[in-house]
Amino acid sequence: MHVPPIPSLTTTDPELAGLIEQEALRQHDKLRMIASENYVSTAVLEASGTVLTNKYSEGYPGKRYYEGQQYIDQVETLAVERAKALFGVDHANVQPYSGSPANLAVYLAFLNPGDTVMGMALPMGGHLTHGWSVSATGKWFNSVRYNVARDTGRIDFDEVRDLARRERPKVIFAGGTAIPRTIDFPAFAEIAREVGAVLVADIAHIAGLIAGGAHPSPVGYADVITTTTHKTLRGPRGAMILSTAEHAAAVDKAVFPGLQGGPHNHTTAGIAVALREASQPGFSEYAQQVVANAKALATALAERGFDLISGGTDNHLILVDLTGKGIGGKPAAKALDRAGIELNYNTVPYDTRKPFDPSGIRLGTPALTTRGLTEAQMPQVAAWMDEAVTAALKEDEAALDLIAAEVRTLVTSYPIPGYTP
């Protein structure tokens, strides 16, 4: 059953309700290890499904373009104040619809078309919106990219500094989507100050770890911080931009009216709930456990001959090069999904294969940890992954189905918020 229940939806649109039921059962029955996914609490689900979705609220609290904002203003202010307190920042904007729009707002706030922006190259673990060629950010701006070292899989800051000195970017992005190691915000800040660039820390993947004290914070180093509100933060699908007081007006103007109309108030409410949950002592324990689980899983995978980029992980994320296993990332990911282990195929640094058929897989432990799994279960997860890859090479579908059954048996002891089969 769903919590909150969906009887009206079931009556009004049984076809859609059936699809939601199937998706809920899928989320329950699998080891969900996509590093950017998680489970929100029942409270976040409830807040996100309220009558707040009925209201238009263009503008900001106290400065709206529509009437009837007496309570909406309080909802948004609550989310803003909680974000400021949780991350220790001067200013927070909770209106961006998602992470990519939040990053686009940074461009609008600090750059003109053709200006130079510097970010990590996408194949190295960066994000599309950090200036990659197929993104508007790579088409409308002069994008320069830094890499990781071939031998270590880590950022070489001497090379980053040389690139910044040569190209003189106006904005430097720190962060990405497939970085398994601690991001050195002080090193980035030193380089940004030297060349007069605005440093933007994209913490979408690690926001919850930062809030829980399991990863160093960029506050005090980065001028602007962008983040999604899901992933490790366990909120709804939204985003925030955090900044110093100096940049507050530019950020707000870029979000509205620069890029967006009215905010999604039901999402803002869900964000407010998630921020309150992240401020509780138990969330710190959760964040620390996410990292402990990732480290334990990385160790178990390495022992089984998996080639981990950078040799391991410091956070929630593991990036694996499957070249040595004799299989591509895409067929491995599809086989693992059939085996009840959900992750994504991913390029690895200096990958010789194409992005849609890369050499690697990316996985993480946030959702497993939310369900209550600990280091004790990670060797078994690694064993299943190894067995599934071997089965994929042999095209042994029966073996994959057997693993999936074993996974279902395990997860029955670890319920998920919002649904009980």
Characterization of the model:
This protein has 421 residues and is α/β, with parallel strands linked by helices. It has two domains: 47-278, Type I PLP-dependent aspartate aminotransferase-like (Major domain) (Aspartate Aminotransferase, domain 2, 3-Layer(aba) Sandwich), CATH 3.40.640.10; 289-411, Aspartate Aminotransferase, domain 1 (Alpha-Beta Complex). The chain is built from 16 helices and 15 strands. The strands form four sheets. It has a seven-stranded mixed beta sheet with strand order 4-10-9-8-7-5-6, with helices on both faces. Helix 8 links the parallel strand 7 (171-174) and strand 8. The modification N6-(pyridoxal phosphate)lysine is found at residue 231. Homodimer. One of its GO terms (cellular component) is cytosol. Its EC number is 2.1.2.1.
